[in-house]
Amino acid sequence: MFTNPLIYFVVIPVIMLLGLYLSRNMAQIRTVAVTGSLALLGLSVWLLVDYLGLRAAGADAPMLYRGDWMWFSALNIQLSVGVDGISIAMLLLSSIILLTGSIASWKINPLPKEFFLWLLLLSVGVFGFFISIDLFTMFMFYEVALIPMYLLIGIWGTGRKEYSAMKLTLMLMGGSAFLMLSLIGIYYNAGLNSWNLLEIAENGQIPHDWQMFLFPMAFVGFGVLGAMFPFHTWSPDGHACAPTAVSMLHAGVLMKLGGYGCFRVAIYLMPYAANELAWIFLILTGISVVYGAFSACVQTDLKYINAYSSVSHCGLVLFAILMLNTTAMTGAIMQMLSHGLMTALFFALIGMIYGRTHTRDIRQMGGLMKIMPFLAVCYVIAGFASLGLPGLSGFVAEMTIFVGSFQETATLNRVLTIIACCSIVITAVYILRVVGKLLLGPVYDEHHLQLTDATWWERTSTVTLIICVAAIGCFPNFFESLIRTTFSPEIFKVIGM
Predict the structure, then answer these.
(1) Which of 283, 463, 473, 439 is CA-nearest to residue 370?
(2) pLDDT in tens, 458-482
(3) Which of 342, 264, 280, 348 minimizes the C-alpha distance to 310?
(4) Sign of torsion, CA 153 156 158 159?
(5) Cα separation, 299 vs 176, whole angstroms
(6) Domain ranges of the chain
(7) pLDDT tens for residues 414-459?
(8) 68-116 pLDDT, tens per residue?
(9) Residue 51's closest CA among 8, 100, 6?
(10) 447/293 Cα distance (integer angstroms)
């Protein structure tokens, strides 16, 4: 087992948990959190390089680094692991945001040890989910990732934290109930006595009538976490009350489990139902895109603005996946990467600004460009990435989505694509409004003149994220080729692309 490199994505966080338990002061806690996060990032980078080398050498298996270990023989549940280009992209994203979130939480208080313990347990679930190809263990890691959110928000959050934590937990657990029912249905109707995702996709024979019944449950189950309308209401409250690192990991990574699950389970395993029912969910996700953008326009709290922006951008991910063509799906994965990085950057900056001004209300702030220029410039860059400025990740991802979506000749698909394109204009409105009010103009509160700019650890965290956002925008071919290896005819033949 331990000769498989994928296992260490779960082993390293577990070792970090032990290290945190043994830590006796804040310096040791920081050392464990940052060192372990760097190890995970290093492992992700090595895996990316080795994976590309194997593909270049001719490896054409759907998943590489495969490993299977029996866990519960009565139901044939195995710890099965494997990755393709999409999985590696998600692992890389997760490790970057875990590292930058740990650095951004350099002075977390109170209970720093307990905070990082729960944060790392969440990361165990995230990494385990992305490497799993057994449906049962994938669901298990999915639940491990969700459970810590209640305590992370309820204890270390702000505002109506207990209400927001409970609302988030109940809605996501409700989605999990639908998801569990759909996975059990897939297991019993595939005719293979197997939970293995690849075996079911290649050899399973799920009847069409069962697909029509199970697909909506699977898509809604994952779609709740992807903030799909009308199941999105937990997201703004959860983001608004969560501490900085939790918001970064939640919006940057955890919500990506929703899009990844919709693609990997719902569409990949039930292609007939996906083709037949896609139009229903295209309408719902199209509403998410436009509704989220309009809602962000009328907010005055920085976190709520970014939270509703996330509803819009995550809606684009599900929207593109449902187009069921290679270009749109490639754009969806790139949007997952882009949104994960830029929303983590947004929440990091909002936390840093709030830590100084003690307010997130844009009506009570102004002129911050002259007071904290570094943070202000970073915020402008994040805003430009969100509204799709060429050279940054948002432009590449959204253009790929819209081009791929418009390839579909169905009238409904094209009309919805045109409506979704309007979100670009709406996004520009609220981004420029916030930048103008928050950073430019006169200083609203004279006490803000005494504030300081970013510290070294804050600069490290934000600059790392900005470099990643620019890398996707400037070198899109690298990431596009990584993702497209998953959609080649030999690898992704199930839905007949």
Answers:
(1) 439
(2) 899 899 999 999 999 998 888 888 8
(3) 342
(4) positive
(5) 30
(6) 5-487
(7) 999 999 988 888 998 989 988 888 888 788 878 888 888 888 888 9
(8) 888 888 888 888 999 988 999 999 999 999 999 888 887 777 788 888 8
(9) 6
(10) 33
Name the amino acid, one letter, at 302: L
123 phi/psi in degrees, rounded to 5: -70, -30
Are 222 and 254 a contacting pair, CB within 8 Å?
A: no
Nearest of 143, 148, 128 to residue 12 by alpha carbon: 128
